[in-house]
Prior knowledge:
The structure holds 2 protein chains of 2 kinds.
Chain A: E1 4-7, E2 10-13, E3 19-25, E4 31-37, E5 43-49, E6 56-57, E7 65-66, E8 76-78, E9 87-94, E10 103-104, E11 108-112
Parallel strand pairs in A: 2-11
Antiparallel strand pairs in A: 1-3, 3-8, 4-5, 4-9, 5-6, 7-8, 9-10, 9-11
Chain B: E1 4-5, E2 10-14, E3 19-21, E4 24-25, E5 32-39, E6 46-52, E7 60-61, E8 64-69, E9 74-79, E10 88-96, E11 107-108, E12 112-117
Parallel strand pairs in B: 2-12
Antiparallel strand pairs in B: 1-4, 3-9, 5-6, 5-10, 7-8, 8-9, 10-11, 10-12
Amino acid sequence: EADIYQTPRYLVIGTGKKITLECSQTMGHDKMYWYQQDPGMELHLIHYSYGVNSTEKGDLSSESTVSRIRTEHFPLTLESARPSHTSQYLCASSEWVAKETQYFGPGTRLLVL
Amino acid sequence: AQKITQTQPGMFVQEKEAVTLDCTYDTSDPSYGLFWYKQPSSGEMIFLIYQGSYDQQNATEGRYSLNFQKARKSANLVISASQLGDSAMYFCAMREGLTGGGADGLTFGKGTHLIIQP
Lengths: 113, 118
């Protein structure tokens, strides 16, 4: 079982607010990822990180930003939330091994009014 | 073009029957990995099974097995003796360039909604 945590699990917020979605893992994994998933749809990669001080944009363009100051922590920030940001955000991590299975957190369901 | 195709949006299956969920993929990379994840209504993604492109045998994990047909580029998930708790969304995913050691993420299919009926 993976030890990866996300907070909050649910967030309802008004347009224009700044939000930070937290993601932490206790497995010592170097690689971490953020995916966005609309209801009933597939996941899309929006950000990833090779390790501390490394951040890269994923396949899906996103107005969010990420930081990686500590190995275990990979927060995602939206400076000004909009209704189009309403979605589920899933964080994952993996090791530097050939298989690189990604283990996911429970997700944050964001609703922007 | 879709890299991962799951052609069954939804399936209804009787409890205790075996289930096959279809997945075809498209890649020109010789080194890749295929994954299946289960997503219950609570939203978390649960890793089920992995198949590497160079693996000689089909992967198995308990009641889950992967029917890997490399020439056809298919990686179907088989669940034996289905249970009510198997009701969930199931996603097939691929990671290309395994030998490159990059940090790129997974490419997911659109998923299959499986409902197990008593």
